[in-house]
Structure formats: structure tokens, C-alpha cells
Design a protein that fits this description.
The structure holds 2 protein chains of 2 kinds. By secondary structure, chain A is of the alpha+beta class. Chain A folds into 2 domains: 385 residues, Sodium/glucose cotransporter (Up-down Bundle); 78 residues. Chain A contains 24 helices and 7 strands. In chain A, the strands form 2 sheets. In chain A, strands 1, 3, 4, 5 and 7 form a 5-stranded antiparallel sheet that branches. In chain A, strands 2-6 form a two-stranded antiparallel sheet. In chain A, a hairpin with a 2-residue loop joins β3 and β4. In chain A, α4 packs parallel to α14, α8 crosses α18 and α12 crosses α22. The longest helix of chain A is centred in the last third of the chain and has 39 residues. Helix content of chain B is 76%, strand content 4%. Chain B is built from 4 helices and 2 strands, in the order ααββαα. A two-stranded antiparallel sheet of chain B has the order 1-2. In chain B, α2 packs antiparallel against α4. The radius of gyration of chain B is 22 Å and the shape is elongated. In chain B, β1 and β2 form a beta hairpin. By secondary structure, chain B is mostly helical. Chain B has one domain. The two termini of chain B are 36 Å apart. Classes of the chains: A alpha+beta, B mainly alpha.
Chain lengths: 580, 106
């Protein structure tokens, strides 16, 4: 089943990106051009570009999907994704721009005079980028799956080829314009369908989500089951089945009419069931089905279950509020501001733009719960943003909205993964493979291929959970390094190095263990799935404690470095102050 | 290629007086930063606890929108924007005052 609108959207966005990006190819010649677009970008354009680069698959698809699946508490992710920029604004934006280092490894080496610290920082840049790139690939796979009805790998390969090709041939000069354009595209693509659904088309009242009545299919709905599933039917209903239900087969074309009695039924994989309008939606049964009251709770559920909800919530708050300032692909953008005060203004505009964006995923999650209960059964709530427009409207309007949403989603994957790939290739070529534009291109190619291959393996993991893990690692490694490096005079090489290794290493280890399936219940689940709650304090405590114990490892001329970080630009250009 | 530290900075505002000036600037800027981060943290830390202490919170609706959706989905963003704008103005003012202080000295 091909959705022509969605296909047009994806193709248009991809071609536009390639076209605008290729204009950058002719202008970009030096590494400066490649990495920071020559520092001539105005504030508003730059803020839109930062937001465009930042709003990834997690924001566009993941937040609404996870909130629909696990409840309102998952909106803490969105709150943190936006509020992270308030933290970035208040503690790192201007000083980091004034210091004049391009990347976090540059900052680590420049601030603490330690080439070893630089190498470790480079390692964490690669880890964070990898964790962040995987969900982009997954989002692309799922989006093209919805658009074409084809296999998952097509989207992953398309995104991998387009992004790797663009980065290996172009650079950031073109990307700045592309990224800012893609921000506005994403905002329109998520706001318009939500507005259309609320304003124009019939839907149940929004607060019926707080009622006790079971969810109802507002219209005839076909649910496709990808894996064997047990469904709990609350009231007898007559449905059309294609595939295998309770052990009996029904023809794939036309299907068979079945009176589904109340109780639990077993659906085989690759089976479709069509429910009539107005019928009560079955649930997955057991703990998987949230009551409306549970869904409305503002506390986070891990994998839909209530495991120490306060600790889980605070863990995600820590990771997202503190993780944004340690994202390698975002920090590079701050050097496109001419001075520190402009960097602040740009960041504040980013907060405004992100706030305008994140109200929509919340609304779509709410609408998804009311309008598309079938997504719970097919376990594909991550596609709710893509599915909703086509449930609500028909004909040309549906095709336009589908094109817009699929295009916006693909813009999200393209912009974020190109930013991440630039950061990855920059780190690889500068610190490992040798400098120069040639090394940068080969690094982009190698990293692009590796990530595409890995992207094929993560199908089914929540997009938002994967991105949340990238934030947790950033919050436990670069966040303490930046905050203490900028505001504390007594940070030493050894404190920074061990803190980075312990905090970042513990967070990475926890996340890898969680991916491997360890710690599903109780406190181990919290420790592994929301590691920031203990790894962030661990990193800060180690850096501060060890620095106080090793005063001899202080870098040379700390005050000179802090002057470079904090003095306004005008003061540096002013002669004669040194004499007094 | 790595421009770790601009060497121009080393030439100006050095010595004990320069250090005192710098530390006072840093303290003022840190104060401005905490002035917006602490109120934000207070809200963010209290709301989850509040929802545990007052379980009735989830059944409230305002203008047909459930309260928890309203707060986490919409209500939290306007204050966030205000705090960001307030920070930019205050931080700029601190720097203006710092530069004026240097001018007076000259």
C-alpha cells in the first residue's frame, strides 16, 4: 500500500536538501568553511538553523509516540529538550563562544592543557553521536514503511546514502540555510495537521480522555499485527479478518467475517483485523493497557510500567536539562555567532522556537489516544504523527497533509543526522585519521556506512528512549566538564579526566546493559534505563573531589583562560588595561 | 588548527587587580544565571512531588483539556521563554556595567 502524498513529501524534501546543500559545495573550500560556515550567520537565521538541526526524529515522532504509549509523563522529554537550552544559555553559550574553540575536544584541550583529555573527549563525541544517529535511522525506516508499505530497511538505506553523500561532498555552508529551512518545515508539518484535526474535523471532546469509558474506534479501522499478539476484547464485535486468528486462517483478499466474543484472542503475525466504527477498542491486556487515570499521570513510566516513577521522572529531567549543552553537533553551531552577546541572543531565540514546536507533539499524543487506539494494538505508537492526518481526512486534503508530515519527518532525520555526521567525521578526521578535507570526507563516508548498518538492527526500540540515552551520556560527561571548566578555577587535569571517564563510562555502560535487556524491574531498571540520576552526580563529585586532591595538576595560567571565557569582546580589544 | 586560547586575552586585564575584576564579573554572571535557573528548577522539582501528594490532580480539566496535559504540554513553555529573555537582558547589563567600571578607572 503506497501513500502517494507521503512519497512526494519525502522525495521533495530530499531533493531540496541535496539541491541547496550542493550550492554549498562550490563555496566550501577550507576547514573553517566546512565546520563553521565562516561565522557570518545572522542571529535569527542561526537560531532557526540550530533548532532545525536539533529537532530530530525524537522530537518529531518520538515524543508524541512515547506520550501516547506511556502517558503524559513522557512529555518531560519534550520539556527537557526545550529547557536544556535555558541551561545552555545561562551557563555555557557566551563563554564558550568567547573561548574560541570549535568543538568540545578543542575546549577540553585548550582549557586544561591536556592532549590526553582531548582524546577521551573525542571518544565520547563518537559514542554520543552514535547513540543519537541510531534513532534517526530507525525513524527513517519507520516513516518510509508507513509511506510505501515496504520493508524497514529502505528508509534506513535512503537516509544513510543521502546524508553521507551530502556531507562527504558538501559542508556546512549550504547546511546552515538547509537547517533553518527545515526548522520551519518541521514546525508547519507538525502544527498544521494538529490544528486541522482539532479545528476542522470531528473528534471526541479532549477531556473524554479523563473518563472511564473504554476507547472507541471513531471510524472503521484496520489494524495490522506485525508480531503474534494477544488482544483483550471487552464487548462482542463483528470484524473482518485477513490472516490467522485463534488458529483459523482467513483469506488474504477480502478476508472473513468473524464475531469476536468478549475475552482474550490470539492474533498471528502478519494478520489484519478491521473493526467497525464506534466499536470498543480491544487492549493488549494485562499491565500493557493503561487506564485513563494512569495515562494522565505526570510521572514517567519506564516501558509503560510504573517503576519508582518519581526517580524515573527526575532521572529524565536531569538527563535532558543537562544533556543539551553536551551535544557535540549543537555546540559547533555557536561559533557561527560573531560574539558572546550574539551567542546569548541566538540561544534565547532557540528557546522561543523550540517552545513553539513542542506544544504540538503533546496535542498529537492526546489526539492519538482518542482517535487512533489501533496503534496500541499494532505496537506502532511511534508512527502516530504520521498516521493521524490520514485518519481524519480523505482525498486531496489527506494527500497534502500526508506529504507535509512525511516531508517534515524526513527533514528531521536529514537535518539531525547530517549535523551528527559532521561532528563524527570532524572528530574522527581531526583526532584519529589525520587532518584535512580529504580525511574529513573519508571519515564521513566510513561513519555513514557504519551507522546505516547499525540502524538496521535497532528496529522496535522506542526512538525517544534511544535519544534520551544519548542525552544521559552527554549530561554525565561533557556537562560537568563544561560547567566546571567555565565557572570553577580549581578544576585540574586529573579531576576532569577521571570524572569524564567515570561519569561518561558509567552512563554508557548502563545504557549498553539496558539495551542488552538487563535490569527490567525495580531499582536495577532505574539505574540502567535512567542512568543520569546517579551518573551525573558521580561525574560532578569525581571532578570536584579529585581536583581538590590534586592541586598540582592545575593547568598553567588558569586566570588567563577564564579571562578568555568571560571578558566581553570589547574589553579584550581595549589597550592599556594591563598596565594598572 | 585548534585555536585553544586567544593570546590577546593574556595581554590585558592581568595582575592582581585584573583578577579581582574578573572574579567579580564571574560572580555577577553566575548570579544572573542562578537567578533564572533556580526558579526553573523549583517548578520542575515540585510538580512531580505535587502530583504524588495530590493524586486528585489527574482528574482536573481546564477548558476541556486535562490539567496534566495542559501543564506539561503547554503551560511550562511561556515561563521558559520569559526566563530566557530575562537572562539575556540581565547578562548584557552586567557586562555594560563592567565596561563602564573600566571606563571610570581610566
Amino acid at each position: 500500500m503506497t501513500d502517494s502524498g507521503a512519497v512526494i513529501g519525502v522525495v521533495a524534501v530530499t531533493l531540496a536538501t541535496a539541491a541547496v546543500g550542493s550550492r554549498g559545495l562550490r563555496v566550501s573550500r577550507t576547514r573553517d568553511d566546512f565546520l563553521v560556515a565562516a561565522r557570518q550567520v545572522p542571529s535569527t537565521l542561526n537560531a532557526a538553523a540550530i533548532s532545525g538541526e536539533y529537532l530530530s526524529a525524537a522530537s518529531f515522532l518520538g515524543v508524541a509516540g512515547l506520550a501516547m504509549a506511556d502517558g503524559v509523563g513522557a512529555l518531560w522529554y519534550a520539556v527537557g529538550y526545550a529547557a536544556g537550552y535555558l541551561v545552555l544559555l545561562a551557563v555555557v553559550a557566551a563563554p564558550l563562544r568567547r573561548f574560541g574553540a570549535y568543538t568540545i575536544p578543542d575546549f577540553a584541550e585548550g582549557r586544561l592543557d591536556s592532549p590526553l583529555l582531548r582524546k577521551v573527549a573525542t571518544g565520547f563525541v563518537l559514542v554520543i553521536c552514535a547513540f543519537y544517529l541510531l534513532p534517526q535511522m530507525e525513524g527513517a525506516g519507520e516513516t518510509l514503511q508507513v509511506a510505501f508499505g515496504g520493508p524497514y530497511w529502505i528508509g534506513v538505506v535512503v537516509l544513510g546514502v543521502v546524508v553521507t553523500g551530502a556531507i562527504a561532498s558538501g559542508g556546512m555552508k549550504g547546511i546552515t540555510f538547509v537547517q533553518s529551512f527545515e526548522f520551519w518545515l518541521k514546525l508547519v508539518a507538525i502544527a498544521l495537521p494538529a490544528l486541522a484535526l482539532v479545528a476542522v474535523f470531528h473528534h471526541p471532546p479532549l477531556d473524554s480522555v479523563a473518563g472511564t469509558a473504554p476507547s472507541v474506534f471513531p471510524r472503521a479501522t484496520t489494524v495490522r499485527f506485525a508480531s503474534p499478539t494477544g488482544i483483550d476484547v471487552s464487548k462482542q464485535v463483528s470484524v473482518v479478518v485477513e490472516g490467522v486468528l485463534d488458529g483459523s486462517s482467513y483469506p488474504a483478499s477480502g478476508g472473513g467475517h468473524v464475531e469476536l466474543s468478549a475475552g482474550v484472542h490470539q492474533v498471528a503475525s502478519r494478520t489484519s483485523i478491521t473493526f467497525p466504527p464506534g466499536s470498543a477498542a480491544p487492549t493488549l491486556g494485562g499491565a500493557a493497557a493503561l487506564t485513563n487515570r494512569e495515562w494522565l499521570s505526570p510521572l514517567l513510566r519506564l516501558g509503560g510500567r510504573s517503576i519508582h516513577p518519581l526517580a524515573a521522572t527526575y532521572g529524565i529531567i536531569l538527563a535532558t536539562f543537562l544533556g543539551a549543552l553536551g551535544l557535540p553537533h549543537i555546540l559547533v553551531r555557536f561559533y557561527t555567532n560573531p560574539d558572546g552577546q550574539t551567542a546569548r541572543r541566538t540561544t534565547a531565540i532557540v528557546v522561543v522556537l523550540l517552545s513553539c514546536f513542542y506544544v504540538w507533539p503533546a496535542l498529537l499524543a492526546l489526539l492519538g489516544r482518542l482517535e487512533a487506539p489501533g496503534l496500541y494494538l499494532s505496537k506502532s505508537t511511534d508512527t502516530v504523527v504520521l498516521i493521524l492526518p490520514r485518519l481524519a481526512v480523505a482525498g486531496t486534503a489527506e494527500r497534502i497533509l500526508s506529504a507535509l508530515v512525511a516531508g517534515g519527518a524526513f527533514a528531521a532525520f536529514l537535518s539531525t543526522s547530517s549535523g551528527l555526521l559532521i561532528a563524527t567525521a570532524g572528530a574522527l578526521s581531526h583526532d584519529i585519521l589525520g587532518k584535512g578535507v580529504r580525511a574529513f570526507r573519508w571519515s564521513a563516508l566510513g561513519a555513514g556506512i557504519a551507522v546505516t548498518a547499525a540502524g538496521l538492527a535497532v528496529q522496535g526500540t522506542s526512538i525517544n528512549v534511544l535519544v534520551g540515552w544519548a542525552f544521559a551520556i552527554a549530561a554525565s560527561s561533557f556537562c560537568p566538564l563544561l560547567i566546571l571548566g567555565i565557572w570553577w578555577t580549581r578544576l585540574t587535569r586529573i579531576g576532569a579526566l577521571v570524572g569524564l571517564l567515570l561519569g561518561g563510562g558509567a552512563a554508557s555502560g548502563a545504557v549498553i546493559a539496558a539495551m542488552a535487556g538487563a535490569g527490567r524491574t525495580g531499582w536495577p531498571a532505574i539505574m540502567l534505563q535512567v542512568p543520569a540520576i546517579w551518573t551525573v552526580p558521580l561525574a560532578f563529585a569525581t571532578m570536584v573531589g579529585l581536583s581538590l586532591l590534586t592541586p598540582r595538576a592545575l593547568p598553567a595560567d588558569v586566570m588567563g583562560k577564564l579571562r578568555a571565557l568571560h571578558l566581553p569582546e570589547g574589553v579584550l580589544r581595549r589597550p592599556g588595561i594591563a598596565e594598572r | 588548527m585548534s585555536r585553544s586560547v586567544p593570546s590577546a586575552a593574556d595581554l590585558y586585564v592581568s595582575g592582581a587587580y585584573g583578577e579581582t575584576l574578573l572574579r567579580s564579573l564571574m560572580r555577577a554572571q553566575l548570579g544572573v544565571a542562578l537567578g533564572v535557573l533556580l526558579p526553573a528548577a523549583a517548578v520542575v522539582v515540585t510538580f512531580p512531588i505535587l502530583s504524588v501528594l495530590l493524586p486528585g490532580l489527574v482528574s482536573i480539566s481546564v477548558f476541556t483539556i486535562p490539567l496534566t496535559v495542559l501543564v506539561l504540554g503547554f503551560g511550562i513553555y511561556p515561563p521558559l521563554v520569559v526566563l530566557a529573555l530575562v537572562y539575556v537582558r540581565r547578562a548584557a547589563r552586567v557586562e555594560e556595567r563592567f565596561v563602564a567600571l573600566l571606563d571610570e578607572d581610566q
